[in-house]
Each structure stands twice: as structure tokens, then as C-alpha cells.
Amino acid sequence: MAAKAVGYDVIIGLEVHVELKTRTKLFCGCENRFGAPPNSLTCPVCLGLPGVLPVLNQEAVAKAARAGLALGCTVREISKFDRKQYFYPDLPKGYQISQYDQPLCEHGQLAIYDGRGNYVKTVRIRRIHLEEDAGKLNHLGQRLSDAAGSLVDLNRAGVPLIEIVSEPDLSSGEEARWYLNALRTVLSYLDISDLRMEEGSMRCDANVSLRPHGWAGSLGDLPRVEIKNLNSLRNVERAIDYEVERQATRLAQGLKIELETRGFDDVSGRTYSQRSKEEAHDYRYFPEPDLPPLRLEAAQIAAWAKALPPLPDRVREELKAAGLEAKDAEILVQDPSAVAYFRAAWEAYGKAVPVANWMLSDLARLLNAAKRGYGDAPVPPAELAALLTQIDRGVLSGRMAKEVLEAMFERGESAEAAIRRLGVSQISDEGRIRQEVEAVIGEHAKVVEDFRAGKEKALAFLVGQVMKRTRGQANPEVVNRLLRELLSEPVRPSGS
Ligand code: ADP
Ligand code: MG
Ligand code: ZN
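A: This is the predicted complex of the input protein with zinc ion.
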């Protein structure tokens, strides 16, 4: 249940950090890679040694700009870098190079959808800026409070990040989860980040406040709490729901909400105070003197915009126009490799709905069990199309096709090879089926009589007998049709 606060509107804005997948770091030539031995991917620039200068990575600029364009932002032709100063052992320079008053991208928007694929609302994106990541502290012990010490790994120091700042347009933990999901989906189409919240390549801070009904002041004047470093979609929702309840309870008791930064404890499901307003950081931002303003040609920005792939909103509409139900379209849309698979199979087969049905039921089940994705499915799209074509031709029943698909999946066989090897093809040859139907009619005179006397149910028995004689391989439609045809013929006198 979403947390409620009687007499108040829930106001939420998210700040999302996304690590960019680039060959090198943002301001030096060190490799940008996860999992290398501690401090092996470092140099005087990202170690913050004196006397060195940062050089901006153009690959990171392009990826950040494409993210902005995909989220409907304006990309500024001139943006600039600023120093954000604070002291922490994972920040060797004593400042982070970020963007303050002139971020790379501004004024975007993102439509969000619920789990069934229904449109919920459009959230405004205030800005996206480019900045460097800090290093990582590894605490020796279970938790910071009783750690014997901490070791610093600077492999991550200087890795390019984008920070995507929303307007406070969200109003529940659930909406925040939908927003993050939609954001991750859009970015996944651009292939600019791993987007793994558990590994920290996507991290979220949530700002939460309660606005009294009838409040006339600005949102900026509401006391708000920032919950830092939420590391899964579920925890974003849990932390916000808890925080809304906590604030509502305080307000109901006549207590004030303190402006503060809070953490989230995964185990207890509670937020806890980390830093109050009095201890708040004053970052003393000032322009980065070692980097010139970042200038981009309008033609370059236009070229990036033009080269964007079809994005989720468009793909979603396309899938619905092809006849897919909203919830099925939504499942496909959230996975670009599923969309690519679907398109290829649809093109080869010609009909969209059966492709989606097979992908989301039998194929999805096989992929899940094998821990694979559509991108490396052992049954390529053209072979799924070939299988579906055999159903249409009457070669396979739906039940047989499931069996064939499993065989194709396990052995990497083509539909044709699997059908041949399993010997499962359906008998649709009318002459052959007619022989069996005639034999059944001859053997079951009593049932035939019942049917002719108007007992419709008798037909099912006769169909069953034909299926039995053909070991289930006769095409049931043809069997039904021929039985009806032959049974409606006038009774021939016996002996003639
Ligand atoms: P700061 O400069 O302290 O980071 P900003 O005004 O830039 O604060 O806002 C940071 C985030 O807080 C944004 O995502 C914004 O949408 C959100 N935010 C602003 N006002 C509120 C509020 N009253 N309640 C919840 N979130 C808010
Ligand atoms: Mg902030
Ligand atoms: Zn370096």
C-alpha cells in the first residue's frame, strides 16, 4: 500500500546518477572498467596529483548529449564545468568537477507507465549534467561503525557520470519506481551505460516533502528530506513510502520536518538521519579554471538527434498499432533486445500478435530457465517465424509446435529439422483423413445414429476415435469438417 498523508500532497523529485560506458575516464586516459585490481586504473590526473591538467573525453560528451536528446532536453551549445568542493577520502582532489549553472542539457520530459502499460503522467526533467565519479571506500568489517579501517580504491575516480534531475512532479513511491523504470528503459536503447543499480552504475537520491493543501508558497520553501544512494527500484519505493509515513506522523503530532539528508536501511526498511541542515555542505562552487567552456556546434547536436534510434514511446505506439495489448507491448518495450527480436520475427512471419504471444509465453519460459535473453536466444527470429508458418499450414497443431520449439531451443535446430527428427508433423492430407473417418463411421454405427438423431456430443467421440487412429496427428479441423460432411450424406441401404 502506498503511504498516504491526510491533508497533504506528497512531493517527490529524483536525482539519478548514471555511469557512462566509455573506453576511458572523463578527464584522463585511464581505462573505464569495473572489477580491475584496486588502484590499477589510475594516473596522476585521476589521483589528483598537482601539476596535471584534465582533458575532456569527447565520447562521454556525445553519450551525455544523446541521453539528453532522448529525454527531450535542449542541449546547450555552450555549457561549462565547475568545481564542487568537499572533503572525503574517496575524492583525492578535494573537489569534484561537475556542472553547476550551465549544465549540458535542460528542460526535458519523460512519460511514465504503470506495470500494465497504462500511461500515468509526464515528468519534467530539469537538467542533465556531466560530472566525474569519486573513488570507492572498502570498509574492513561488516559496517562502517565497527570497521577496523577503510581502504580506498580510485579505479572509479574520474569515471564519467550523468546526473539527471527531475522536477518535483512525482507523488508516490510507486510513481518514483515507474519513473526510474522508464528512465532506465530509454537509456537502455542508447547503449550508453550498464544501468545496473545493484552494481552502482545507476544510483538514485530521492527528495521527499509534504505540502499542506492550500499551500501558496514555492516548493523550494518546503522543508524536504533527501534520501541518498538508493540501490534498487524496490528500495526507492520502500524508502519513499517509509519517509512519507514518517513525515505525516510527525506533522500529525505537531512536530516540524527537519531539512536533512537521510540514509535508507535495507533491513529495517527505515530511513535514518545522516546530516542535518546545520551540518549541510556548502560546496562553494566556482568555475573550473583548468577547462575551457564546452562548445558544441548546432549541426553536431542536430546530427546526434537525427541518429537516435526509435525510442520507447514510439515503439510502444507501433506495437499497439500492430494489435498488441498494452501490457504485452510494455513487456517488450522494456527490453530493446526483445523489440529487435520481435521486429525480425514479425517481418519474417507477417503477423504481429502470434509472434508476441509465443515470445511472451513459451519462448520467455525457455529463456528464463536457461538464463538467456532474446539477444542470444538459441531459436533465432526467422526460425520462430518458420515454426508459426507450419502451424498456419496445418503441419503442426499448437501443442505439437510447443514440443518442436523446445527441441529447437535445446538443440539449436531449425524448425524443419526438429519437425523431421521428432516425426510430429500433423496429417492434413484430406484423402488420408477421409479413409480414417470412413473407418470410424463404419465401426460406430450406434454413435453415428445418435448424432444423426441430433445428439451433437456424439461428434466429439467420433473425432476422438479418428485422433486415436492417427496417434493424435490428424488435423482436428479437417477431421471435424469431414465427419460433418460424411455424416450429413443420406444413409446408404446396407448391402448395396
Ligand atoms: P539542490 O540545489 O539543493 O540540489 P534543487 O532545487 O536543485 O535542490 O532540487 C534537487 C531535487 O529536489 C530536484 O530533483 C527537485 O525536483 C527536488 N525538489 C525540489 N523541491 C522539492 C520539494 N519541495 N519536495 C521534494 N522534492 C523537491
Ligand atoms: Mg542535489
Ligand atoms: Zn587517470
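Residues 8-303 form one domain. The mean pLDDT is 92.
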